Amino acid sequence: MLDLVIRNGSVIDGTGNVWFKADVGVKNGKITRVGNISESESDRVIDATGLVVCPGFIDVHTHSEMSVLINPKAETTVRMGGTTHIVGNCGSSPAPLTKEAKKTVSSQVGTEWDTLEEYFKCVETRGLAINIGTMVGHGTIRDFVMGTASTAPTNRELSEMKRLVDEAMQQGAFGLSSGLVFAPGRFAKTDELVELCKVVAKNGGIYASHVRSQSDMYEDAVAEAIEICEKSGVSVQLSHQCVMPPHWGKKREVFGMIQRARERGLDITIDVVAGLEGVGSLNDMFPPWAVEGGIKEQLKRFADHATREKLVRELKGETNWNRNIPALWAREGRWDLMRIHESKEKAILGKTIDEVAKLKGKDPFNFLFDYLIEEGEPRGIIEIVTTVEDLEFMSTLPFQMFSSDVWPVAPYGPLAEGASYPTQYGCYPWIFRKFVREDKILRLEEAVRKLTSFPAQKFHLWDRGLIREGMWADIVVFDPKAIAEKCTWENIRQYPMGIKFVLVNGKIVVENGEHTGILAGKILRHTTECG
């Protein structure tokens, strides 16, 4: 007897092939039959008439490492069809941790660890609703070995960093991630990254990079990633790629160099966030001198009237430092393109800077100075980073898969505190509504492939991402005519519609759109599950 049969559905197997009618049988967590299966062969039958049956969605760029410990149900992820997250991205991973980092982790989740293996055991002890695999972060390792030093590593320090990368991969990391716009990652030279990636390549892993620039220096940043790929032999994933100003409308030129690298035999792919917004920091808006010396010195400057006037003049002028998104929008006065993401004042969360400044009766610059003084610490913003036209183009690239760049939240409990944004509640359904059903730039089967078998192939999840006998039964059953996000900026905390069932490792985690509370996820280890 089978544990479960999904009957009468339109199977989209994840390969990109057109859908076909078939039943899917599950036993002991795996898909054991695809074909004609009688109802009598299982005590539990899901009738999928008129529905799509496809693999669970795999998200290769998330930051879910802490949130799954705070709320293991991963509510927003599974309710929109997500079954697997890769964490440890942008150069920041759960381990190895410094003493200060361990204190921060302990305050967030009530426990601590030293190694990735200990992190895995902590997650497994609490249980989780989705599968989790992790990268090891270059920034985390550099901080562990060198602290915040901006210098190049000594031979001894580099050897220790290489040892830690190798150790993490032996414990199950899928590869190395970097965040080259953040400290301490931004201090690394290309040759340092090449040496670390040689260790990753030796272990059959991936190098996933938040490159040095996605704005005016984007071509140079991609060229560096290509050089790292060529010199180390590592497989490269360019994280959350987007066409930012000043490249809006220049998409073909920007991504042509990646295509040419692939034509030379280099294994370079990209992921693209399913949405127009990104999360940044208000501190990215200000010149380096304004934020030197830590937050106390910064706020002293913001409180001084003459310094404010100097800052405004610089923010309105065109200089070498103000080419990132927050500084660009400030220079152009596009306060409507940035929203408050973090604040003690909950009433202003999710509102644009333009809206809040008007509510406060202040011009946007003075509002920001006063706001940061009142908050007492740097604060996050949500910023528009690309256009619909450029996002649609990127979504049709053959070497592109989708990602979210977020983490699971919930409309209740600790994860309801602070601001959320639409990507967290509906990015995967948004793809099917916007790109498949309305704009028709992707076939339904191709959209599924970019969320399932393609990311599984890239990250060596050889037993996931397909509806095929012998695969783990991570399965989504959805209505192709109804799947859509419900969240809006005015009412974000709404789960999507059209997702009927979600199975994780053969267990029903979402039934008729509701979370069952079952924690069926696994820790995915590169060395044990992926060879």
The stretches of 5 or more residues where confidence is low (pLDDT under 50) are none
Secondary-structure content class: alpha/beta
Could you tell me the CATH topology label of the domain at 139-276: TIM Barrel
Largest sheet: 9 strands, mixed
The number of helices is 20
Shape: globular
Helix content: 25-40%
CATH evolutionary superfamily of the domain at 139-276: Metal-dependent hydrolases
| Gyration radius from CA atoms, angstroms | 23 Å
- CATH hierarchy: architecture of the domain at 139-276: Alpha-Beta Barrel
Chain-averaged pLDDT: 92
Strand content: 15-25%
- Straight-line N-to-C gap: 31 Å
Determine and state the CATH class of the domain at 139-276.
Alpha Beta
Number of strands: 21
Features of the shown structure:
6-stranded parallel sheet; 20 helices; TIM Barrel
Question: Could you please describe the fold and organization of this structure?
Answer:
With 531 residues, this protein is α/β, with parallel strands linked by helices. Among the domains are: 139-276, TIM Barrel, CATH 3.20.20; 280-384, no CATH class. 36% of the residues lie in helices and 18% in strands. The protein is built from 20 helices and 21 strands. The strands form four sheets. Strands 1, 2, 3, 4, 5, 18, 19, 20 and 21 form a nine-stranded mixed beta sheet that branches. A six-stranded parallel beta sheet has the order 9-10-11-12-13-17. Helix 5 (138-146) packs across helix 6. The longest helix has 17 residues, at 422-438. It is globular, with a radius of gyration of 23 Å. The two termini are 31 Å apart. 50% of the residues are buried.
